[in-house]
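## retry 2 of 3
previous attempt timed out at serialization; input unchanged, resubmitting
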Amino acid sequence: MNGGARSPAVGIRRWAFDIALLLLFTTIAAGQTGAVNGFVRDRANGEPLAYANVYLEKTDYGAATNTQGYYYIGRVAPGEYELVASYIGYGSGRRRIRVEPGQTVTVGLELSAGAVELGEVKVSAERARFEREVEVSATRLETRQLALAPRTGGELDLFRTIQLLPGVVTTSDFSNRLYIRGGSPDQNLVLLDGITVYSPSHLFGLFSPFIPEALSEVTLLAGGFPARFGGRLSSVLDIVTKEGNARRFTGDGSISLIAAKAQVEGPIPSGSFLVAGRRTYLPDFLLRAFGVRGLGYHFYDLLGKANYQLNPDFRFTLSGLGAEDVLAISDPDDPDLLSGRLAWGNRGLSLRSSTILNPTLYGNAVVAWSNLYSVFDVTLDGTEEVRLANNLGDVVLKADYTWYAHDRHTLEAGCEGQYLAITSDARYVRNSGRDTLFNLSQASSVWPLALYASDKWEAVKERLFVQPGLRYAFYSAGTKSELEPRIGLKYRPAENTALSVSTGRFTQPLVTLNSTEAIFSIFDAWQVVPSGRPAPSALHAIAGVEQWLSRDAVFEFETYYKRYDNLLETRYGRFFTPAESLLPARGYSVGYDMMLRRTEGRVNGWVSYSFVWTRRSIGEETYHPHYDRRHNVNVVVGLPALFWGADLSLKFNLGTGLPYAGIIGYYHRYAPDPNDPNWYRNPEWGFIEGPRDAFRYPLYHRLDLGLVRKWETGWGEVSAFFDLANAYNAKNVLLYFWDVDEGKVPVRREVGMIPILPTLGVKVRF
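## retry succeeded, writing output
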């Protein structure tokens, strides 16, 4: 054997020896140092403070809390320290501690809101993320920031606020659907405490089913999201509800033009709870006021959460969602002649366990059930019954682990199993159930399974962060195996500047059958990607810069490219396309987003600008989809205590016109009739359509204003609010149609969006 060569076995043994030696040195080093861990919470209600800054004063040791408020500071030299927790809007929490070799000191810290010492330097959650996280295209909103945008019809709405973020496009005042960086709404993963919400809309798309006052924080990942998320091509909207006040019972209620809602929270043995509900009354009231009989409509929402602390290291959280729209029709004079009910909605439950397995290993396990359903029942003349039903149910079991392996390495790993089934039923029965004319049923299912791992590596301390990740997804429909590599990098050339790049591959096992061209959306009809077709996929490439101008003001710029392959598009001009008729497509989107944001101070909010160029190709046809808004500007400003103790908020949106398919000509169309000698005297008008989405609507612009005045009482707080939607009554165009009068040339007419709309409301908190 050549003396200069080694056998593979020798190489493997040498590699194993090196790894063992490294682990030995790490163990010895860990034995010579100590660690500090614990939770940071709000003193008033026990809510965890995510991304609070925790550090040992006058040292380089520090960490940020995770989303559950947990922190870990490892490899601390033995000695005495001042442990400090800092968070914008709160006074610092301090504790004198002593760290011993080989030991972990557990310290829980509680911060009081508003108790800020003069000259004290505070670090916001956004700043902590900037300094320690690698995430790109991430925007986090807290409860108080969700309230910055004025209400629509007196109702705060989460999706209306999300639509004001850079990279997000809305297609009308009547739609809350999210088109993010050139992606369609079914490419967004919407999670509420681990529950997948498949159709997050009410009132045909006007509102979302989430009660903003019950939410703790919302994070939008507009692209390049990490390996722990999967199953969608464009974005992730991660919504977390409040845990509930663990110190005392509180509640609030409000009445607006459209709905009434209430919320109650308080302590339970070893935990806390929160329940929030909302129900509309305006649609029913208006129908009765205008004398409309035989037609009724309402929607309701119910959110709940309960926490139970089994011991300091183990916590259970149970969350629930119920949201439903109900439309009832009947013959007011003879209900037996016609009666019907259309109901659709979302339901879900999740049970999460959060565990400190040891100070360096933090785990979450979630089991979640979600259900999207629609049922239409109608009875005619007491003898004929029609029933249409659609049901999507899924069960998810997911486990995530975070290992603080080293002061420069934080590893995440997890697994996810899901069972998803979709059923559709149609039945027509006549003669009071004796004759079944048809009874059709369809079903499809898929088992998405996934494994993932990632490592946040601080390659150069406080300067260079690298986060490689890999997700393996398996979809049982068609036995599809997908590798999804992802990597993110952040470099801080200066204290207040960060450069970031990210790229990754993403796949999706589901699509919707609804037309994305539809102006109104009742609910989404989902379908498993047929087994004979490849899974839709997307490639993201993102680069950006983040510049902090002060402790509470930041400027962000990101440019991106997204390539889509194996898309399944609905047929043009059809509201609904059967799964077997979906068309294979491909496409791309390219653009950039800019945002100047201030989170605190007398003037807070953000200004954003987005540019996007989106293309789709089906066969030889290439077009801009109808949500391709080239330029989009949003201004959101909050002015606390501006005058008479009232808070003013304003929202302004300016966007270039969206594409639509226009009429390029019309002509007389004759229908010869042998029985009518004058058939040529009565022609009909025929219309010639132009290329798909080749025209654009006029410029869109709208200003909303909101005013809130609060009064403190001995038992609580009373707030009155006034909102003015479309304050200067902009004449925005929803759609065009052609008006044809007999004997006259066709005239193009337009249907406008929401006119100027003032609303009043009151809120009581106790």
